[in-house]
Amino acid sequence: MSAGPRIVIFGAGSIGCHVGLTWLAAGLDIRFVGRPSVVQAAADEGACVEGDDESHLFAPMDLVVSDRPDILADADIIALCVKTTDDLEAARAITAHARPGTIILSLQNGVENASRLQPLLPGMTIVEGMVPYNVIRPTPTHVRKTSAGNIIVARNAVLEAALAPLKSTASPVEFVDEMRAVKWSKLLLNLNNPLNALSGLTLHEQLSDCAWRRLLATLQSECLEVMSAEDIEPAKLGPLPPRLIPHFLTTPDWFFNRTGLKLQKITRDARSSMADDFAAGRRTEIDFLNGTVVGHGRRHGVPCPANETVVDLVKHAECGARKSWKAGEIAELINRRMAGGAS
Question: What's the topology of domain 182-339?
């Protein structure tokens, strides 16, 4: 048993399970709060985590997984991995069970996590983090990392000490002084989530097609204009400077497929988390992704017709409308919105 601080992963979904199991493999004291199906699977089968050319198996006795939030009472650190749409419910559980002053490490999508969570958790210490990679979950407790990258977290002395054992592993955590630029750069990449969901394709299939990449480049170009209006210089998270990514996306298939897909190490079975939401009939995080671009664009008078179109399509899909589209059809809808002067 680790003598370090106890970390509870609140939200044992794909990301939560991958993060928690990876940290557990490194010797950290990890507990999980998840759905009853995850609790039962862990009790019956144990768990498996894969990524960065490593895999780790856990027997049921190695895991502490509960569907009851009262285990938050023993947490020194809570890694918040629930969907941003579930913040209010999660905050109520944390307030009811966790000790005042507990560190809440937000590993969620979105760029305004701290400002959204702090009013909900006034007695807690909120620290922002960012998970740059994609995860798939073949079973409730079998998770596999399907793209490149390591977690980035805002500097915090307690967290740096707690996560120090990860330095010698294939999954170190990077600590930075300024998270705002990091979060917006992650948002730039996450703008593809709805496109992947609407395509019905795997990420590899979708990004192998220049028509889909052109759409993504358009979404990102709008986001970069909004960033300029916000006076944000995006952080470099991969091999390319963020402002060059839209240009790289529009290169011919023969070139991009030999370079871009390999650089990101995207596996052939990877899908976006929003594609998983579509499949499960869950509410998506579109308001915190492309919806954020639209909202900030309106604040600064920056037109974002492509992101507006994608937000509309996802919201209609959530209400039971059409979920599967071709890239050309979405491009035509964007062109119509632009011709109509919508912003």
Answer: N-(1-d-carboxylethyl)-l-norvaline Dehydrogenase; domain 2 (1.10.1040)
